[in-house]
Amino acid sequence: MSEKSQLILHAEYNKLMNQRLVVASSNLSNTSLIEDKGAFFKSVIGTLNHIMVGDILWLKRFSSHPSCYGSLKPMGNIDKPEKLNNILYVDLTQFSKARRKLDEMIIEWCKEIKIVDLDNPLRYINYKEEQHNKRLGDLILHFFLHQVHHRGQITTLLSQEGIDFGATDLPEIVPDETLA
Asked: Is 15 a member of any domain?
């Protein structure tokens, strides 16, 4: 499987897991959704928002790559979050709509990426005002791993509330190979 094919697979997995997180989180009361549970970003809604904030920050950076991805043009209309713990949405229904749109954009972008782009560096400035110039393919992998990390925290918070999130295994969506 090519690196590009793996990115598309990660984007599709990302969408599926985010959809399931919203469904599972909808079983919480509004009080439980926003309650500080001691996680990095305090609550379930805080952590959901942090994942989105991270996605927005990285997608805005990726949209500045010299390859000029058409699928990321809408990122120009989205404000850059001021902090990593910004709460963009308190309402789960509004969050879900925004999440779905972002996940569709991520899939389209991964389909648009050219293999040669993955080896080209991306220049960006992080929140500490440090300049970086790193291989695009490695940054995209970080982008997806960041999401996985924080979704794991949310599944733990849901489990503590008695909500079984279910399987999170990637092979669920990996196609079977033809047996010879």
From this structure: yes
Query: What is the domain-level CATH number for residue 58?
Result: 1.20.120.450
Question: CB of 139 within 8 A of CB of 122?
Answer: yes
Which two tokens mark 1? Answer: 């499987």
- The three-state secondary structure class of 67 is coil
Output the CA torsion 49→142→84→86 (10° steps): -20
Domain count, the chain: 1
Stated pTM of the model = 0.94
* Tens-level pLDDT at each residue, the chain (180 residues): 799 999 999 999 999 999 999 999 999 999 999 999 999 999 999 999 999 999 999 999 999 988 889 999 999 999 999 999 999 999 999 999 999 999 999 999 999 999 999 999 999 998 889 999 999 999 999 999 999 999 999 999 999 999 998 889 888 888 888 776
